[in-house]
Design goal:
Blueprint lengths: L2 H27 L4 E7 L5 H13 L8 E7 L4 H13 L4 E5 L1 H11 L6 E6 L17 E5 L2 H15 L5 E7 L5 H14 L3 E7 L2 H13 L6 E3 L4 H4 L1 H14 L3 E3 L8 E7 L1 H16 L10 E2 L2 E6 H7 L5 H4 L4 E3 L1
Parallel strand pairs: 1-2, 1-3, 3-4, 4-5, 5-11, 6-7, 6-8, 8-9, 9-10, 12-13
Antiparallel strand pairs: 10-12
Helix pairs in contact: 2-10, 3-4, 5-6, 7-9
Amino acid sequence: MPRHFTHLTRYFLIGLLAVSSIQCQSASETPSLRRIGVLVGVPFFMDTVTGFKAGMAELGYMEGRNIAYEIREAYSGPDEERRMAEELVAAGVDLILATPTEVSIIARDVAQPLGIPVVFANAALEGLNLVSSIREPGVGITGVRFPGPDLALLRFERLIEFVPGARHVLVPHQKEYPIIPPQMDVLREAAANQGITLIDLPATSIDDMKRQLDDLDASDAAVDAVLVIADPMILDPAGMNVLGVFAGDRKIPVGGIQSPEHPVFIFSVMISNSATGGQAARIIHKILRGTPAGDIPIESAETFFDINLKGLSWLGIEPPESLLSKADTLLK
C-alpha cells in the first residue's frame, strides 16, 4: 500500500478517536437532573416557592431538564408536615426547601439523619433550636431567616414616628406561639425606654381576640395605637378583619402590615416572600455546586417599608417627610 494512504488512514483514525473523546466528554459534562423537595406549611408563604423557582431559572436550572421539584403543601398540622417530609425523602430528593418555621424544624429532623441538606426560608430562629448559630448553622442546614424581633422593633419605631403622642400601644398576638416571646422582649425594652405602656393582648383564637377587644372597649381603656407583630393569627384574613373593625370603629391607627379593606392600617414593614425565595435559590445553587450547607452562613430576609397615604389622610395624620423618603412604596 502506498505510504501516503497509510498516513491518511492513520490521521482518519486519530480524528475519529478525537471526535469520540469530545462527545464522551460533552456527555459527562451534561448536568444531571437534581430533585428538590419543597415543603410549605402555611398558604401565605406559597409566593416563596414562586420566587424560588424563578431564582433557580435565572441561575440556569430548567425544570424537566436539569431540575425537578417535588412540592408538598402541609396545612393540617405537625402530623401531616412530618408525613410529607418523609414522602419527600422517600422520593429521593437531593435537598429540601422548607417554609416557614415549624416545617423547617420537622424537615431538619427527618432529613438530617439521612444526610439530606435542608434550606429553610421565612424561619424564625430566636427562642428555637433550629440551628447552632448564624455563622455556623450546623450539619446539613442553612437558609434565610425571618427577622421577627428586628421587624417588631422597626415596626414599633415607625409607629411612634407616625403617632408621636401615643402612650398606650396595643399588641394583640396568638398566645403561646413560639416566635412571639422574642418579639415581645425587644418591644418591652423599647417601650420602657420611651415611657410607653404596651397593652399585651394574648389570645387563644381569633374569637378569643374579638372577645378581649370587646372587653377592652367596654372598659374604656386608653389605646392610642395598635402594633401588629409577626403572628399567624393576625395574618389570617379573619383575624385581620377583627382587628380592622375594632380599630376602624375607634379611628385608632394600626401599624405593621397593610389591609386593603381597612384604612386604619397605615403602614407595613414586611419581607417579600418572593424575594426570600430568590435568596434561598442562591443558597441552594451553592449547595448543588458542592458547598456543604452547614458552611453557608444564614441570611436575613430583606425588609420593605410601605406607607398607606389614603389611610393616613382618613385618620388625619400628616406623615413626616423623613418617613416618606424612606418608603419603598407610597400607596395612594
